[in-house]
Amino acid sequence: MAELIAGKTGDWEMVIGLEVHAQVTSKSKLFSGAPTDFGAEPNTQVSLVDAAMPGMLPVLNGFVVEQAVKTGLGLNAQVNKRSVFERKNYFYPDLPQGYQISQFQHPIVGKGEIEIDLPDGTTKAIGVTRLHLEQDAGKSLHDQDPKRTFVDLNRSGVALMEIVSEPDMRSAEEAAAYVRKLRAILRYLGTCDGNMDEGSMRCDVNLSMRKPGAPLGTRCEIKNVNSIRFVMAAIEYEARRQIEILEDGGKIDQETRLWDTRQGVTRSMRSKEEAHDYRYFPDPDLLPLVLEDGLIERIKATLPELPDAKKHRFMGEWGLSAYDAGVLVAEQERAAFYEEVAKGRDPKLAANWTITELLGVLNREGKDLADSPVSAAKLGGLIDLISDNTISGRIAKEVFAEMVETGKEAAAIVEEKGLRQVVDTGAIDKLVDEVMAANQDKVAEYRGGKDKLFGFFVGQAMKVSGGKANPALLNETLKKKLAP
Amino acid sequence: MSLDNSTVAKIARLARIRVGADEQPHLASELNHVLGWIEQLSEVDTKGVEPMTSVAPMTQRLRPDQVALENDRDAVLANAPESVAGFYVVPKVVE
Hints:
Chain A: GO terms for molecular function: ATP binding; glutaminyl-tRNA synthase (glutamine-hydrolyzing) activity. Chain A: Keywords: ATP-binding, Ligase, Nucleotide-binding, Protein biosynthesis. The complex is a heterodimer of chains A (about 475) and B (about 100). Chain A has about 475 residues and is α+β, with helices and mostly antiparallel strands. Chain A is about 40% helix and about 20% strand. In chain A, a hairpin with a 5-residue loop joins strand 7 and strand 8 (about 125-135). The radius of gyration of chain A is 30 Å and the shape is elongated. By secondary structure, chain B is an alpha+beta fold. In chain B, helix 1 packs across helix 2 (about 25-40). Chain B is flat. At the A-B interface, strand 3, helix 1, strand 10 and strand 17 of A face strand 1, helix 3 and strand 3 of B.
């Protein structure tokens, strides 16, 4: 789904690669025992290691290593049994060591691949170049004081996985689909909570423009884009900016830019430029990381069913469309909810009710599935009433609205309100006779060839029945009685 | 390999060490001596030898994922030139 952008000199193609920083879910930091909880008072989760006091030594968190291996396996990637931590040297007030411990030449995870779901129901494979472990920096607050910057080191030393993609994406939509899929995989694995609002997943966008089929152009890197919406907006803006420069005969400077959420533009971050000489070298405080025999296999055995596998199973086992299956597997809880609803019932009906009705309502009310007033068992109960003809689909929507409101069982609402469908042929005959008697002129017109009036009779009869007439039975009876 | 004064100035800048122009020739000469000494290593034939990242014949030891915070904020901030409301305070970093 390469989306070409028309310029003055012809069409342009975007080439996009993403670097995603994902905070590893762990109790303590990468190299220290300080906690990782979000939102603590400033500098209360800082060990002397994180503050880089002289003489402090880093000790690697074994669980974080396992989380990285697990993520690598979830990205269908090569896991490297031997990896090396290096120092990336630069000065910034929120980096007390004067270097970030990262992995450079020998990352823990190498090449992999994930499949993204596009809005038209097709999929596309996006290459993963590598995943490496590194320390997060602290947080600088520049807006608290006109002359000073405030620094909080709570995040300093928290374990991050930097996941680098190949430049395989060709539109903002594909980039968004990649971030969504990556987040879903990380959440399924439990290796990162994927919470972009709290900064536990952050995104750097690399973008260059070219004429279709031409060699790669010079790219710019847009740093720290912190929501999927901003990723798309930053890409759209930056593509236009680069096209404008190129079409005016200019050239793109390879540089780091910043997404300005307030103005909706990307801006050059000149201050970072000269810091680009990172002088990596192996960290002498740390030994090479060698994974013990059997660790990879042991972790592989604990992997859950991942979104793509689940999606394909939903399509095969339940006969769902690629789109519906994609929506349902986007979150693990949602997929589990659906499977509970679908079990022993019509799977497509279950999918429709879960997606269109329930997720629709939750979305409108800004609620999570966890806060749903209608449980999977209760939604299943409603579907049972539709399937055994106790209520029609139309009445079911009424019952559902009531369930959302009160949290009651469908059957209880149907009994209470007397919504049980009329399936008694005698009652329906009587209903139809009444409607025909009251509209004799229309009966004559219908019999005279005005077929369209059939809908009018259905509507009238349904109204008289209070919506409770069985639609199939009603249609059949009307046809029989109206026949000339 | 030989360093000139501008390279010395760049290294000093990267290391955030103030080096006056009058000190550069002297430092360039000293650094060149060190580099010459290290360059002797290239006389050794290292074909087929795997690059070494650590001299100890050991691999990394791991610690369990347990929270153990032995210091409080006052200890962390004790050496800070300035702090306000629990934050380190530094001269404004303009972005």
